[in-house]
Amino acid sequence: MDIKAAMAEMGRAARDAARIVAAASVAQRNDALLQIRQALAADRENILAANERDLEAGRENGLDAALLDRLAVNAARLDVLEEGLAQVAALPDPIGQISDERGMPSGITVGTMRVPLGVIGMIYESRPNVTIEAASLCLKAGNAVILRGGSEAIHSNTALGQSLANGLSAAGLPVDAAQVVPMVDRAAVGALLTMPEYIDLIVPRGGKGLIERVMAESQVAILKHLDGICHVYIDTEADPDKAHRIAFNAKTQRYGTCNTMETLLIAKAQTGMLPALVAALQEEGVEVRGCDDTRAAAPAISVTATDADWSTEYLAPILSIKVVDGVDEAMAHIAQYSSSHTESIVTENAETAARFLREVDSGSVMHNASTRFADGFEYGLGAEIGISTGKLHARGPVGLEGLTSRKYIVRGDGHIRQ
Predict the structure, then answer these.
(1) Do 340 and 363 touch, CB atoms closer than 8 A?
(2) pTM over 0.85
(3) Backbone dihedral angles phi then psi of residue 367, each to the nearest 5 degrees
(4) Contact, 396 vs 228, CB < 8 A?
């Protein structure tokens, strides 16, 4: 098979489909999402069986528990996908919205209109749920999408891709508007990255190796985050019970996600709460590493945190803890080691919280909340296509608006420039 030629054909088909989707009414695009939802329900047994094939292969290939969890599709996760489709269908239509329209001294009127980006290339690993979540947002925003999942999820993604095709066909939209790449050869990724004539935006979701490859090879604009090194800071004026709940949840609710806390920063005045928190984490199976002050306050910690720990995304039941003097040292640490994904402060001091929210430079910054809330579903986006830690175009969880651009709309009545 000539992979480059096959990918080019997918790109041409996606470009043609994108024009049709962009011109479709919001009612038709919403109907497509609801038809996909019905197709998921009808295809549930096939999807679960396909996912079990992937899980079985993953176990045989030695995937660890965290990676298997990311790969798994069960009834509850299918329920979430179906609910996400309904939520996205219910969201306001961003396409065609005109804003900031104003009259100019010359007599013309100028405004901006939200428009689709065109064709999105999704490159992702493990999580098959991305297939549906990404497609739903792209279609709602009037785009076409080419979905290239990892080889470890090929059976799951193929089954989900069939549900996408069934739903699109039922709604009268081209099935090429949401295509799953059937090739597992890595050359398919290289081809996708080098088709700027067909692809308008690349969205990679996966490990550091994947993101680095995309950054090095892509000839297309990228929406990405490299790491999820997320922090919780327990302030001098934090409520200890509240801080315990937030820190425990931020680490243990799920280990293999990019919004899981990897470093806990705690003010010296709060180290009295460390023994109970560390005991709870260790009982949950978390390996806790600490700086010297942390280990002095919680002798149950046997591993000393090193400089490398502060810049490591574990994606595993490992947590590093550092004692700091206060909010200024905490923010300095975050500025040095954070991946600009998500940070949270636990404090009852409104002024300290306001400083943290204003001065910490990350895609999501929180007050008295677990970092695990940094998610498109939790933010009311219905789903997210990814997390952006960049500062241009879109930042944080990216939903519908991040999948659109704008163009200027100018109205006149025979006006000419003098």
Answers:
(1) yes
(2) no
(3) -125, 120
(4) no
